[in-house]
């Protein structure tokens, strides 16, 4: 018989340190089931990433004047791609990545924005 334990807040998470508000439950067999991921950034019109979901490439529109440091992380927290953006609009090729949920960390003007991406 499979029973579940009530959702519990734990200090160890399989997610990158910048991802907060992850809710999950643990079954008797110690299987984590993700029930939600809180979006860690407010809607921000300074930087847009599209299309969502994507297949091979993403386009980053940058309405800021400064350089943007971009890092793409998988759900294990591994950095899988990085790029320095200096143009207002740049296309980034991510075709080598497998279909998964990714987190994009954008650093600019003493700000950090985290956006979630889904690759189909």
What report would you give on this structure?
This protein is mainly β and 120 residues long. It has two domains: 4-37, no CATH class; 47-118, Immunoglobulin-like (Sandwich). Helix content is 0%, strand content 48%. The protein contains no helices and ten strands. It has strands at 4-5, 22-27, 32-37, 47-50, 57-62, 68-73, 79-85, 89-93, 101-108, 111-118. Strand 2 and strand 3 (32-37) form a beta hairpin. It is globular. Residues 1-13 and 39-43 have low confidence and may be disordered.
Topology at a glance:
Layout: E1 4-5, E2 22-27, E3 32-37, E4 47-50, E5 57-62, E6 68-73, E7 79-85, E8 89-93, E9 101-108, E10 111-118
Antiparallel strand pairs: 1-2, 2-3, 4-5, 5-8, 6-7, 6-9, 9-10
Task: Supply database-style keywords.
mainly beta; 0% helix; 120 residues; three-stranded antiparallel β-sheet; globular; single chain; Immunoglobulin-like; four-stranded antiparallel β-sheet
Computed over alpha carbons, the radius of gyration is 16 Å
Helix/strand order, N-terminal first? EEEEEEEEEE
Quick one: CATH superfamily of the largest domain?
Macroglobulin (MG2) domain
State the assembly state of the protein chains. Answer: single chain
């Amino acid at each position: 018989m499979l029973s579940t334990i009530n959702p519990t807040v734990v200090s160890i998470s399989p997610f990158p340190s910048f991802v907060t508000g992850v809710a999950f439950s643990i079954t008797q067999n110690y299987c984590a089931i993700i029930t939600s991921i809180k979006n860690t950034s407010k809607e921000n019109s300074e930087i847009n990433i599209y299309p969502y979901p994507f297949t091979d490439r993403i386009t980053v529109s940058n309405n800021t004047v400064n350089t943007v440091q971009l890092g793409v992380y998988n759900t294990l927290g591994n950095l899988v791609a990085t790029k320095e953006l200096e143009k207002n609009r740049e296309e980034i090729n991510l075709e080598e990545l497998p279909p998964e949920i990714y987190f994009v960390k954008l650093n600019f003007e003493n700000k950090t924005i985290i956006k979630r991406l889904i690759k189909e």
